[in-house]
Amino acid sequence: MGSTQFGNFHVSSQRRRRWAQKAPGSPFRNTDSDSWRLHIYRTSVEIRLFLSAMSERKRAAVGRREMQVFLLGYIVISICEIFTVGDFPLNSTVRIAFTAIHIGFIIATTWILMLNAIVGYQLLDDGTLLSLALIVGSAAILLVGTGYIALDTGLHWTGYWDSSYELPKNRHIALYVLYQLAPLVFLVAYFVLEAILVIKILGETRPMLYLASAAILFAAGQVFNYVVSKYICDGTSGKIDGALFETLFTLLAVVMNWVFWSSITEDDWPTVPPNQFP
User: Fold this and answer.
1) DSSP of 231-250
2) Residue 2 φ/ψ, nearest 5 degrees
3) What is the spatial distance between Cα 53 and Cα 104, in angstroms, rounded to a whole number?
4) DSSP 3-state assignment of 88?
5) What is this structure's pTM?
6) Rounded CA gap, 43 and 75, in Å?
7) CA distances from 123 to 69, 103, 120, 126 (A)
8) Which residues, 6 or more positions from 50, have their beta carbon under 8 angstroms from its beta carbon?
9) Partners of 9 in the beta sheet?
10) Which region among 8-22, 69-83, 100-114, 161-175 has the lowest average model confidence (pLDDT)?
11) By the 8 A CB rule, do 78 and 38 touch?
12) CB contact set of 188 (below 8 Å; sequence gap of 6+)
């Protein structure tokens, strides 16, 4: 997992043993914690699909398509988490591949979220081919670039990043910036841009409650992931760690962010005309 020490990545000894126990060919038996993990990840995907469908119904909402692109990105992240932090039995090469996709989609999706805030300023017409192409195209560049670095590091294609395995071990500046710092910058920019839009331009205050709730929930998830995780992992012999709670709180943050977006966009919910029932 990531670390608060710049450039460093840490994986607890408990989690290493758990991965080894669940490698293909080793004895594997689902535990209650495994069931809870899969249930949370599955629920996360289902809720985001539901939010995407609800977004489709908001015909006149600003940034409807852009919001759906953001939700799609987080659906992919949730699926990847099943295989990267969900202790799903995989060989090392497949786990590295899913990890690279996971990291790539994290930076790409947070970038898309930041661009969603810019969409609200209507610098370009939202939902147009140009708007979507700029968002998806720029996100794809981040996804492919970050994914390649992660794959090259894990699979030693060129050997360029092999120094990350030397002392100090698990130190990778490029991935740390792309995986840890860049998404944080994008998220802060998103919250600042949305706060300015709501308070200065729209003159509203109530939506800020939803936005603040999303920020608090996301921050709580990061506390579990970076601060509390070690104690949870050690206390449960590696059965669960902070990543499980980080996923849950991030899901709640995404839901509150959607509620925030819904509250500041124009509603045009389709209704069934009278006397149209058989």
Assistant:
1) HHHHHTTTS--HHHHHHHHH
2) -70, 175
3) 25
4) coil
5) 0.84
6) 11
7) 18, 30, 8, 9
8) none
9) 2
10) 8-22
11) no
12) none
pLDDT value at 274 more than 60: no
Residues 6+ apart with CB under 8 A from 265: 58, 60, 61, 62, 63, 64
Domains (range + CATH), the chain: 13-24+32-264 (1.20.1070)
Please compute the mean of the pLDDT values over residues 35-56 and round it to a whole number: 84
Cα distances (angstroms) measured from residue 227 to each of 25, 106, 160, 235:
33, 20, 32, 14
Residue range 195-253, pLDDT digits in tens = 999 999 989 889 999 999 999 999 999 999 888 888 887 787 767 778 888 889 999 99
d(CA 100, CA 260): 31
pLDDT reported for residue 6: 57
Copy the structure tokens of residue 148: 């390649």
In terms of C-beta density within 10 A (0-12 exposed, 13-18 middle, 19 or more buried), how is residue 240 classed?
buried
